[in-house]
Amino acid sequence: MRNLRFQEVLLLSRRERAARSVILDQDVTIVLGKNDTGKSALLKSIYASFGATAAVVHPRWDSAAVISFVKFTVDDIPFSILRAGSFYALFDASENMIFCGDRVLNGLGPILADLLSYKIVLTSSSNEPVPPPPQYFFLPFYVDQDEGWRENWSSFAHLRQVREWRKNMVEFHTGIRPNEYYTAKSALVQTQSRLREARAEVAVVERMVAEVRNDAAPTFDIDLDSFQQQVKALLDECGRLKSIEEQLSSKLNELYARRHTLQTQIDVAAASLKEVAGDYRFATERIMHSEVECPTCGALYSNSFAERFAIAQDEDRLTELIIQLKQELSPIGEEIQKLSAQHSNQRAEIQRINGLLDQRQGEVTMRAVIQSEGRKEINQLLAGRVDDARERVTAAAATVESRKADLKSYEDPDRTERILDRYHGLMKSYLNELRVFTLPERAYEQVWSNISETGSDLPRALLAYYFAILTLIQEFSTSTICPIVIDSPNQQGQDQESIRTMLQFIRDHRPKGAQMILAIEDRSGISFGGSVLELSDRYQLLRTSEYDTVDAVVTPLLSRALSKQS
């Protein structure tokens, strides 16, 4: 099992000219602070950096347009990840770029899945196999204060973009279905799809053969009036399709022009950003005097903070401009793909109608040949297609059976029963320890059950469930153990004894070797070890005093990533 740990979080808001750098203890970090001091914003930003958006994000934090940068390790190998708006960049220990772009589902997600050894494959809403998006990686390990204490498996947004995610992800994380099971399942689904396609082709071709054999009468209408009407109808349809094609061509030309303009603007802005960054580094790092002598005329020019601040503002505006232009560029490419497909379909339809026109124009003179020789050739052609399709059905059916055998080999009823028995035992023990006595066993019968309770018992029942799942992950799973991040467990009016019980439970039942980040208002006399990050300023998680330091780390990486993508 791999182990993921968060090392450092850097947050930067250009709009507010403020930033924050937080170093996380590799064992336990207690984020201590009253309400509105930014505890939740800090934790949500960690996951946002990985493309996993929390279920609720405060509008004020969203409006700050915070750029986040997280340093982390996987089995002690360092990596870092950066997010600015919808743009992401992933780096290795030497800050070599592994990925940059604005795609999560088909871009960043599969790379993170490979890095964290998540082999599970889910089914998208369009019935396509996809690796799980990043929010599914962290589901068992994060309890969001807004939704996580109301319903289990709900701390992240956008969870319904794949089908049957809840049962599949719970079985995966708890080890009921190991990595190998989902690899075999994906292979089976693909093979079954090929089998369905082959069987459908056999049915279509066999029907065509039957129609040709049963239709002994001539297939061409030689009535001249009818012939002329059919030709006219084909010509009218061809004209209509050509008009649509011309409209699509015009729209495509406009989109290509717009894409070229945006790309040119991005290239110009990226080049300017590189020059401005160089000017700023020269002004701040190499020139230490308040005045600079011109090497040509000898005149003296001021090297004041105002000049350097102006350069820095130019750099900020160029960076934001590049991000904005890239966000405008992305949907244009998608629209071009869609219109190009429509354009190709129109061209194909026009060619088909032109072929029918050619056939109609020559059918009167070729009628005898078509009747005598064409029917024989069609029969032979279709007979060959039937044989080929039947062979593909046979081969695909054999492969399906083989894939089913592979899948069955990873379904161990005895192992599943051991995991479920362990789960039920943990739930009974943890509920009793947390003083939840009214939750019936049927409420947590399935390992993916929705935990339903009322009042102050609900957060404690959910805590029992979360740690039962974490214990199963540690004992049975083949997935990665991620940091356990718990935000504000004091929910639903817990009395002092209950909150002490919850905090002591969290401390005592943390899986061995797992990093923990716990955000609380008060430690209630419980010692957790590790380090404490105390937040005291209301609505001021970010600090103006840290802006330059964090900016010096984040901006060069962001500029390089944006230039790489452009």
Q: Return the CATH class of the largest domain.
A: Alpha Beta
Oligomerization: single chain
Span of the ends, CA to CA:
37 Å
The coarse silhouette is globular
- Write down the CATH topology of the largest domain: Rossmann fold
What does this structure look like?
- The chain has 566 residues and is of the alpha/beta class.
- It has 2 domains: 4-178 and 411-565, Rossmann fold (3-Layer(aba) Sandwich), CATH 3.40.50; 206-375, Helix Hairpins (Orthogonal Bundle).
- It has 12 helices and 16 strands.
- The chain has helices at 39-49, 59-63, 104-115, 134-138, 165-174, 179-214, 224-286, 305-409, 413-433, 457-476, 496-509, 547-565; strands at residues 4-13, 18-23, 28-32, 67-74, 77-84, 87-91, 97-101, 122-124, 129-130, 142-143, 162-163, 291-293, 300-302, 484-487, 516-520, 531-534.
- The strands form 4 sheets. Strands 2-1-4-5-6-7 form a 6-stranded antiparallel beta sheet, with helices on both faces.
- The longest helix has 105 residues, at 305-409.
- The two termini are 37 Å apart.
- The relative contact order is 0.17.
